[in-house]
Write a structure and sequence with these properties.
Blueprint (H helix, E strand, L loop, with lengths): L1 E10 L2 E11 L4 E5 L6 H9 L5 E9 L2 E2 L5 H6 L2 E3 L7 E5 H15 L7 H14 L4 H4 L2 E2 L5 H15 L3 E5 L7 H14 L5 E5 L5 H4 L4 E6 L2 E6 L1 H10 L2 H8 L1
Parallel strand pairs: 3-10, 3-11, 6-9, 9-10
Antiparallel strand pairs: 1-2, 1-4, 4-5, 7-8, 11-12
The structure holds adenosine-5'-diphosphate and magnesium ion (MG) (2 copies).
Family: Belongs to the ABC transporter superfamily. Ycf16 family.
Keywords: ATP-binding, Nucleotide-binding
GO molecular function, one term: ATP binding
């Protein structure tokens, strides 16, 4: 699904990613971990195509098509979803109405007509039931006065509605409490199919007790310096990152 080869990327002429190789196949869950400042969020943003980040070398393909020159909207239309670390408040626009607009905008970009209102309502009902989202929540103004857990609930609801092929969840700076952690984990687990894939970026090993990844990668200094299975996350929990830094420096 997603193939990244020798990716280098910079912000303001400072090189942050220094040769990333990563392949994510349908049905897989990958966790990306690593110390603060190692480039995890940069990687997520570069995959999503955010303009502040300049890709200076390498290749990113999605379903075998080169997406390097596509803007974030076009990447989203190809099924790439990046969770919003700093969600905007939109007073007067409900969670549901925001979602309806997002879905119909996506359909328009794909050359499709609006989703019939009846189908839209059914989808909203089905997905909110699956994720145990309260009716009242759906009619609230987007992000206005949302708690951390409610923001996560909204994010997972957006992911459920948009049905991305590849979801990238960057949880690093969001200070997840235990409730929010469970909301994210349950959502990811329920939305998991053999046709989609998830990349979870986290420095909370605890999240990976709930979302069991197929692969764990450690990003350090702009490179993936170690990859393994879920046991790698447990090793990191016990031993921290110093042994990895030592391995790299040796
Ligand atoms: P992580 O998510 O692993 O904590 P980041 O990708 O956020 O790491 O940051 C990697 C490096 O890039 C850090 O040194 C950080 O200071 C720098 N950086 C990230 N975003 C910006 C930005 N918008 N402008 C300048 N430097 C940035
Ligand atoms: Mg950080
Ligand atoms: Mg980060």
């Amino acid at each position: 699904m997603l193939k990244i080869k020798n990716l280098h990327a910079s912000i303001d002429d400072k090189e942050i990613l220094r040769g990333i190789n990563l392949e994510v196949k349908a049905g897989e869950v990958h966790a990306i971990m690593g110390p603060n400042g190692s480039g995890k969020s940069t990687l997520a943003n570069v995959i999503a195509g955010r303009e502040e980040y300049e890709m200076t070398e390498g290749e990113i393909t999605m379903d075998s098509a080169d997406i390097t020159d596509l803007d974030p909207e076009e990447r989203a239309h190809r099924g790439i979803f990046l969770s919003f670390q700093y969600p905007v408040e939109i007073p007067g626009v409900s969670v549901t109405n925001f979602m309806k607009t997002a879905i119909n905008e996506t359909r328009k970009a794909q050359g499709k007509d609006d989703m019939p209102a009846k189908d839209m309502l059914k989808m909203i009902r089905d997905k909110s039931e699956m994720l145990e989202i309260d009716r009242k929540f759906l009619s609230r103004s987007l992000n206005e006065g949302f708690s951390g857990g409610e923001k996560k609930r909204n994010e997972i609801f957006q992911m459920a509605m948009l049905e991305p092929k590849l979801a990238i969840l960057d949880e690093t700076d969001s200070g997840l409490d235990i409730d929010a952690l469970r909301i994210v984990a349950n959502g990811v687990n329920k939305l998991r199919t053999k046709d989609n894939a998830t990349v979870v970026i986290t420095h909370y090993q605890r999240l990976l007790d709930y979302i069991v990844p197929d692969y764990v990668h450690v990003l350090y200094n702009g490179r993936i310096v170690k990859s393994g299975g879920k046991e790698l996350a447990h090793q990191l929990e016990e031993r921290g990152y110093d042994w990895i830094k030592e391995e790299v420096e040796a």
